[in-house]
Write a structure and sequence with these properties.
Number of domains of chain A: 1
Shape of chain A: elongated
CATH topology of one domain in chain B: Four Helix Bundle (Hemerythrin (Met), subunit A)
Strand content of chain B: under 5%
Distance between the termini of chain A: 55 Å
CATH class of chain A: Mainly Alpha
Largest sheet of chain A: none
Radius of gyration of chain A: 17 Å
Structural class of chain B: mainly alpha
CATH class of one domain in chain B: Mainly Alpha
Largest interface: A-B, 72 and 85 residues
Helix content of chain B: over 70%
Oligomer: heterodimer
Order of helices and strands of chain B: HHHHHHHH
CATH architecture of one domain in chain B: Up-down Bundle
Order of helices and strands of chain A: HHHH
Distance between the termini of chain B: 60 Å
Helix content of chain A: over 70%
CATH superfamily of one domain in chain B: NADH-ubiquinone/plastoquinone oxidoreductase chain 6, subunit NuoJ
Number of helices of chain B: 8
Largest sheet of chain B: none
Chain lengths: 101, 187
């Protein structure tokens, strides 16, 4: 098994774990953690794709973009979670739902 | 080399799984930091040195500090491992996604020989220059958004409600206070 194939298996594992976490998480911060795991899979996929196509620098420059966007998403998500905690007193997604009331 | 890479991949997946399996949020953030650190080692082994350094400093450093800061403010409430949808359905959706993705990628995975490519700085600043501009704008927008989200508006509700009523009852015109505290309250 080559290094590239192992990297692709790692990508699949990260995406699977992130997706599973995103589906079952009820805590807002846990949702952001699952999103981070999902994006890490995308990062490794970009580097692996760059390596496979012989354009590693292009893959790296795209990965830089993904890291910046991911960090911004995490920061804004955490700030929103803090505001939700201050106003509602909980981070549970089911408790935040007001549509059923 | 291949064995080391496989062992690191397994360790990274284990960290990622424990990151949202952990009962306490702070432990979850630390497992995520471990996952980022191992991912950066994997990228270094793949030859992506620049992105490995950036991932180590941003993913394992900055994002972890942000998580710890947010958890310390929000309180480390023990998040029980309850699911919003039934776990078997979530597992089936995840497995189907992985199998489809793997079927599409692994079967057609052929490593091409490295082509003659520009250096990383040339690719980043010249070929992908627009991306860098977008990133700069995105960072500024994020900073403005964070300042707006984290700013606390402390409105003295009782004073604001009672003071104009007393003034009106006494027949005097309501004079708006011009102190700094009042301006903050208005904001």
């Amino acid at each position: 098994m080559t290094t590239l194939q192992i990297a692709v298996i790692g990508v699949l594992g990260l995406i699977g774990i992130g997706l599973y976490g995103l589906l079952i998480a009820r805590n807002l911060i846990k949702v952001i953690v699952a999103l981070q795991v999902l994006v890490k899979g995308a990062l490794l996929a970009l580097v692996a794709a760059g390596l496979a196509s012989g354009k590693l620098n292009l893959g790296q420059s795209l990965a830089v973009m993904v890291i910046v966007v991911d960090t911004v998403v995490a920061v804004i998500g955490l700030a929103l979670a803090l505001q939700v905690k201050r106003r509602m007193g909980t981070l549970d997604i089911k408790d935040l739902s007001t549509l059923k009331k | 080399m291949s064995f080391l890479f496989a062992a690191l991949t397994v360790a990274m997946l284990l960290c990622a799984f424990l990151a949202f399996r952990a009962r306490h949020l702070i432990v979850s953030a630390l497992w995520l930091a471990g996952c980022s650190a191992i991912l950066s080692i994997l990228m270094y082994l793949l030859g992506a040195y620049w992105i490995a350094v950036i991932e180590l400093s941003v993913g394992a450093g900055l994002v972890t500090v942000l998580f710890v800061f947010a958890i310390s403010i929000a309180g480390d409430e023990s998040a029980e491992f309850r699911s919003s949808i039934p776990r078997p359905i979530a597992l089936i959706i995840s497995l189907v996604s992985i199998i489809l993705l793997g079927f599409m990628t692994i079967s057609s995975l052929i490593a091409l020989p490295p082509a003659t490519e520009a250096t990383f700085s040339e690719v980043l600043w010249q070929q992908r220059g627009l991306d860098m501009l977008v990133q700069s704008g995105l960072l500024f927008a994020a900073v403005v958004g964070i300042l707006g989200l984290l700013s606390e508006a402390k409105v003295p509700v009782e004073e604001k409600k009672t003071a104009p009523a007393k003034e009106l009852q006494a027949g005097r015109p309501v004079v708006k206070p011009a102190t700094a505290a009042a301006r903050e309250a208005k904001a």
